[in-house]
Amino acid sequence: MRQSCDRYSFPFETGHAVADNHTSDDHASYTITRRTHVVDQLMQMERLAVLIHVKPSFTESGGFMTTITKVLPAKNLFTIEISTNEELNNSLINCEELVFSTSVEGIPARFKTSKLSPATLGGKPVFAVVIPKSLYWRQRRQAYRSAIPPVVRMTCTIALTDSKTHTFQVLDISLTGFSLLHEYHKDASKTLEIGQVFQGCRFSWPSSLNTPFTAKLCRTEVADSNGVFRRFKLGFHFADTTLAFEKDIQDLQHELAQIKKRQSGLAHDSQLPGTLRA
């Protein structure tokens, strides 16, 4: 019968965990729960070989520094290097819950898992760990824009100065703003002024972003013109956002990256010799 881990006086190796100075609301807003996203972040940790501090959840001290050696989504597991301290390894094996803390390219990350299981990978001893159901990933505000691919039909409804609601194609989006394609008569530019604030804006997709928000027009530029009609690219800043709204945009950007990745894979496969075509 295994002893409870709280009976151990934990030895530890040199290393420091990420400071835990967030509020409960902050934690909820930056917690990833979609499994594919969690797996992607673990794979990023593996690829970058980031140092991860592992410790029992009931103590603020102890534990050791390690790296992820392999992520195995099909088995719902990932593996980590074991400690050189045998006493520590035995202590960690008996823990019911462990906390993993790290920083990935400046982004604080943290998650909890159940017991570690001794295993081997490529003939070397490792710990096998169950992939967590959620992962705290505090990605700070970034201004990089994600283009909306043609296969995705994403629109935004905005009430212009004529008090009518108009629907526009969304071209790209970031945590700070987005741009729209505005197909209108050549005099349309007279009805739009930089600095205008529009309330009650809505995105058509995804459903998590289908709540009203406020946007401020920051730029307009002519995309093309035939002398009668002009197509404008309108740039907007989000006038006010919540942490939950920003998290939903991050999730959307991640989903768009996955769509782009799948499209690139399909394009690559179609160019391979011997690829079957309909």
From TrEMBL:
Domain called Type III secretion system flagellar brake protein YcgR PilZN: residue spans: 30-136
Keyword Nucleotide-binding in record: yes
Keywords, sorted A to Z: Bacterial flagellum, c-di-GMP, Cell projection, Cilium, Flagellum, Nucleotide-binding
All copies of domain PilZ, residue ranges: 139-251
MF-aspect GO terms: cyclic-di-GMP binding
Taxonomy, superkingdom: Bacteria
InterPro entries registered for this protein in UniProt: PilZ_domain (IPR009875), Split_barrel_FMN-bd (IPR012349), T3SS_YcgR_PilZN (IPR009926)
Gene3D superfamilies: Electron Transport, Fmn-binding Protein, Chain A, predicted glycosyltransferase like domains
Pfam families: PilZ, PilZN
Keyword Nucleotide-binding: yes
Designated name of the protein: Flagellar brake protein
Species of origin: Candidatus Methylospira mobilis
Upper taxonomic lineage: Bacteria, Pseudomonadati, Pseudomonadota, Gammaproteobacteria, Methylococcales
